[in-house]
Structures are given as structure tokens and as C-alpha cells.
Write a structure and sequence with these properties.
single chain; about 190 residues; alpha+beta; four-stranded mixed β-sheet; about 50% helix
């Protein structure tokens, strides 16, 4: 009988000590995970990750990519900017998502063409556009500058335009309605 009691005491102590160590290890791991989660939430997002997309931020991201590949930065041009903004507004107003303007058969209206070729003195131009979700009351659904830039970079023709050393000037337009954000980039070759 004494052997049974001694064995029971040894088993109880072993389980108790082992269980205590296990419980302490478990609680320490949970506390560390909680601290890591709080730190993750406290770290501010980059300005590029807070929407909606912004023309100045897009220019910074595009020029950082051009620098990465050894290409001169694009110069911001007010006329090219106005053209890109007109296109973004037109895409939202007429609800289309393509380079060619429906019913016009061209990528640019007469005003856009004037701004690009007469005012900015471009010899050639091209366009990138990005369409994303927009919800004015929730950051969760707002398309950011980084999302637009990443969308362009994940498409070979759009990425090649961003990296093309022949382009010297650029402008960006951003337009939204209740559900959609459109970001347009116009490029200018002098």
C-alpha cells in the first residue's frame, strides 16, 4: 500500500511540475504573441498604403522603380497631368475601363491631345490605367497608390512603359465614384 501511495505522489508531482512548466510555457508564448500583434498594429502604414491613390505618391513610386533599373526619373508636367486627370474623370463618368474611349475610337479626346502634343510638346505618348475598389467611408476598400503601382508592375506592357528611358515627362489623374477608383498615368516622349 505504501508503494502505491509513493508512486501516486511521484506521479502527481511529476504531472504537477511538468504541467506547471507546460502551462507557464504556454502562457509565455501567448503573451509574446499578444505583444507582437500589438506592435504590428501600432506600426504606422506607409503613406503609399493608405488610400485613395494619390498622383504625387504614384510619381514617387514610379521614379523609385526607374531609379532601381537605372533610368532617369520622369519629370512631372502640368499639361500631361491635366490630360491624365481628364481621362480618369472620363472613365468614371462614362463608366468604361479601356484605353480607347467608346464612341470616339481614340485614346484621347481633342483636349487631351492638345494638352499632350501642343502644350507638353510630346512627340509620342502612352497610357497606363488602374481600376480598383473605392469606398469613401472605409479604408478597407480604398485602392491605394501602392495597389495601383503594383497593378501596373504586374503587367508587362505597363511595367515596360514605366521603365522605358524614352519617356521623359508624366502626369497622373485619379478619379472616384462610390465604388470605383481609376488611376491614369500618361507618358510623354519629347
Amino acid at each position: 500500500m505504501k508503494k502505491v501511495i509513493v508512486i501516486a505522489v511521484i506521479v502527481a508531482l511529476t504531472i504537477g511540475v511538468g504541467g506547471g512548466v507546460w502551462l507557464k510555457t504556454r502562457l509565455d508564448a501567448q503573451a509574446a504573441a499578444g505583444v507582437a500583434q500589438e506592435q504590428k498594429q501600432e506600426q504606422p502604414k506607409s503613406k503609399y498604403d493608405v488610400g485613395p491613390a494619390d498622383p504625387a505618391e504614384l510619381l514617387e513610386l514610379v521614379n523609385a522603380e526607374r531609379q532601381r533599373v537605372g533610368v532617369a526619373p520622369l519629370e512631372f508636367d502640368e499639361s500631361v497631368q491635366r490630360s491624365a486627370q481628364l481621362k480618369a474623370n472620363d472613365m468614371i463618368t462614362k463608366d468604361y475601363r479601356q484605353h480607347i474611349i467608346p464612341g470616339l475610337g481614340d485614346m484621347y479626346t481633342q483636349e487631351m491631345r492638345y494638352l499632350i502634343y501642343q502644350r507638353a510638346k510630346c512627340s509620342h505618348s502612352s497610357e497606363n490605367y488602374y481600376t480598383g475598389a473605392y469606398h469613401p467611408k472605409s479604408d478597407v476598400f480604398v485602392s491605394t497608390s501602392r495597389e495601383a503601382f503594383n497593378g501596373w508592375m504586374s503587367s508587362k506592357p505597363h511595367r515596360e512603359a514605366i521603365q522605358d528611358p524614352k519617356y521623359k515627362k508624366t502626369g497622373f489623374g485619379v478619379s472616384t465614384n462610390n465604388t470605383t477608383l481609376v488611376a491614369v498615368q500618361h507618358f510623354c516622349q519629347i
